[in-house]
Structure formats: C-alpha cells, structure tokens
Recover the amino acids of this structure.
C-alpha cells in the first residue's frame, strides 16, 4: 500500500494532482471571486480522484493531511458547493452609498446557506435576487443577510409549515394505529384467556394447522420491533 503523504511532503511532479495544486495556487492569487476557480479545481481533484496520485485513499484524508491553500475537507466542500451554484446567482452591484467601496462580490460564507438541499433552484434565484437588491441599496453582503432572507422568505416558510404538518399528521396516524392495535390485543387476550377447553385449541389446529403458532410468531416479531 502506498504511504499517504503529509502536507510537508511533495507529490509526483508530473501527476494530475501536482498540476491541480499549481492551478490552485494560481487561482488563489486572483482577487475577483477566486473561490469559483478554486472550487472547480477542487471538484476535479474530488471527482477524478486525483488525490490518489499522492497516495491518499480519500478526498477527506487528502484535504485534512495535505491542506492545500490551508483548506481542510469541510472548508473545501463549502468552496465546492459555492462554486457549483455561483453561475445561478446574480452579479452584485454597489449602490449610491457604497460608490467608493470595492465592487461587492459573492463569498463562500454568503453562498453556503443557499446550498441547503431543501432549497430548490427557483428558491435560490429568488432569495439571491433579494440579497442583490439589499446590496445595491448599500448594505454589506454577509452570511447573516443571506440567512435572514432565507428565514424570512414566505415561500420557504410555507414549505416548512407544510412539511411540519405532514410530519405531525404522520405521527398522529401512527399513534392512532398503535393505540388501536393495543386495544385490539387486550380484547383478544381476554377472549383467548376465557378459552379453557383443550379441545377448542385442538379444533383450531385441526382446522388450520400452525395458525396459532403463526400468530404467536407475528406477535413476537412486533414485540421485538416495538422494544427496539
């Protein structure tokens, strides 16, 4: 097995990984949303398993041990998520109060909340549009601003409310069935306990061989599941 390299060691100079790492350094030197180019390169290292060229068995191990650009696995995945959806977001424009400030740009921290799997593409575009409006009016882009827009979005709130109601309904229905089953079990237990004649149980076995045993097996399986 190839020994995994640490962040202080080098990778083969002509390997795919070495080439990608050189491109990472170049991408980091650009000021305008360099995370997009960085994310694309990290995606390539992940998707094409270039980390294996350096002797690493996984992307996580590669990032955490070698830490290219000082990034660990969790940070790299944030950059990748942000880069994947950047093209779906509007460019930001500075408003009158911020004319003397640098041109506002999206950041990884501001984009990551928009990568939530519960948000559809149309939700992302709508919320990003509202963020862009606030930035154009002079506000400074921040992770909190994006989260506030998500948490205050009426469509998202309705979706969350609907999801909560569906979960509640499912829980109520399951509770109803469990209570009904318990009541039924108690009723039949009393009935079976009242049957004292051996010949009655023999008749059951004669009419349907193995029936009583099958019922017992099912009840034991249910009991085991409920106790787990």
């Amino acid at each position: 097995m190839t020994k995994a390299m640490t962040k202080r060691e080098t990778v083969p100079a002509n390997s795919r990984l070495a080439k990608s790492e050189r491109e990472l350094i170049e991408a980091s030197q650009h000021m305008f949303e360099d995370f997009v180019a960085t994310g694309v390169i990290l995606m390539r290292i992940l998707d094409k398993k270039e980390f294996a060229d350096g002797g690493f068995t996984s992307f996580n191990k590669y990032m955490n041990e070698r830490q290219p650009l000082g990034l660990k696995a969790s940070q790299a995945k944030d950059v990748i998520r942000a880069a994947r959806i950047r093209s779906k977001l509007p460019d930001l424009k500075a408003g009158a109060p911020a004319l003397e400030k640098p041109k506002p740009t999206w950041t990884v921290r501001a984009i990551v909340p928009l990568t939530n799997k519960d948000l559809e593409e149309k939700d992302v575009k709508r919320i990003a549009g509202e963020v862009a409006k606030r930035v154009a009016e002079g506000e400074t882009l921040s992770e909190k601003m994006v989260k506030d827009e998500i948490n205050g979005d009426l469509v998202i709130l309705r979706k969350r409310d609907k999801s909560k109601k569906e979960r509640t309904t499912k829980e109520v229905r399951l509770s109803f069935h469990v209570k009904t089953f318990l009541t039924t079990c108690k009723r039949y237990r009393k009935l079976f306990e009242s049957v004292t004649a051996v010949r009655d149980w023999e008749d059951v076995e004669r009419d349907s061989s193995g029936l009583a045993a099958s019922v017992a097996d099912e009840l034991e399986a249910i009991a085991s599941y409920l106790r787990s």
